[in-house]
Design a protein that fits this description.
The chain has about 270 residues and is of the alpha+beta class. It is built from nine helices and eleven strands. The strands form four sheets. A four-stranded antiparallel β-sheet has the order 1-2-3-4. The protein has a three-stranded antiparallel β-sheet with strand order 9-10-11, with helices on one face. Strand 10 and strand 11 form a beta hairpin. About 5% of the residues have low confidence.
């Protein structure tokens, strides 16, 4: 039987199996927890998902019915990047089956009432437009231990997010932040942070980057040079498998930044 976790069926994305349904004729079927594009969670049987009988939490039928009565028009943004960011934010904070829940909801991170409920997305959208949202930006919490709310969030590039986290790490051995050490020793802060997270100490932490004596050496484990395509290939742990291809970059520093962010996100 094929695994359907992570697959999409209409508006539903399968999170994981949540139990067994027993019908009146004693027939049994697997049921799965699914996240609807509207942000709601619902349990659906495997049969209904695969057959296409159910393709939303019920919101699609309500929208069609209400539009036909000329009583309601949806915001029309269900498939937009901004809506998916909002839905993902909710999943990380409230869905215990989400892979990142332990770093968000599991730590007590929540979302303010303004961005939840019936008008939650509209309020989030209005705030985003006033706060400089662009397609290349991601939502970032100013206080990493704080909640998602207008006072604690802003839009930034992924590189800025990574640098903000990296710069503020205090390396107790030297009594300085990674940013201060990078400036003092003329090193890239992302390289210092990468080494620090992997237990490098003393002179080893602050030594100049290893000289690349061949095109296959970046000086960082998990980043290798692909001579044929002339790109830096980033590898890491994905779905429990080591040395899995993640992404390619022309620029080595961009590859290092991505590797840092991926390792931080996945806890590797």
């Amino acid at each position: 039987m094929r695994k359907i976790e992570g697959e999409r069926f209409g508006r539903l994305t399968v999170i994981g199996q949540s139990g067994i349904i027993t019908y009146n004729n004693n027939r049994r079927a697997r049921k799965y927890l699914c996240l609807c594009d509207c942000g709601q969670y619902v349990e659906i049987s495997r049969t209904c998902l695969i057959s296409g009988t159910t393709n939303s939490c019920g919101c699609l039928a309500r929208e069609v019915r209400m539009r036909s009565d000329n009583k309601y028009i949806t915001h029309g943004m269900t498939n937009t990047r901004l809506f998916k960011i909002w839905a993902g934010m909710k999943a990380r904070c409230y869905n215990k089956n989400h892979e990142a829940y332990h770093r968000y909801g599991g730590r007590g991170i929540s979302i303010c009432d303004l961005w939840l409920g019936k008008n939650g997305f509209k309020n989030f959208y209005d705030w985003s437009m006033k706060s400089g949202y662009q397609e290349n930006l991601t939502i970032d919490r100013i206080d990493n231990d704080g909640n998602y709310c207008p006072e604690n969030c802003h839009w930034s590039t992924r590189k800025e997010q990574t640098n903000n986290r990296n710069n503020n790490v205090v390396i107790e051995e030297f009594g300085k932040t990674a940013s201060e050490l990078a400036e003092e020793f003329n090193l890239d802060v992302r390289l210092i942070y990468w080494r620090f997270k992997r237990g490098w100490t003393g002179d080893r932490l602050l030594q100049p980057p290893r000289k690349i004596v061949s095109e296959k050496q970046s000086g960082i484990k998990g980043i290798i040079w692909n001579k044929k395509q002339s790109v830096w290939v980033v590898k890491g742990i994905k779905n429990g498998k080591k040395d899995t291809y993640l992404k390619s970059f022309k620029d080595l520093q961009e590859a290092i930044s991505f590797k840092n962010q991926y390792d931080n996100t996945t806890g590797n």
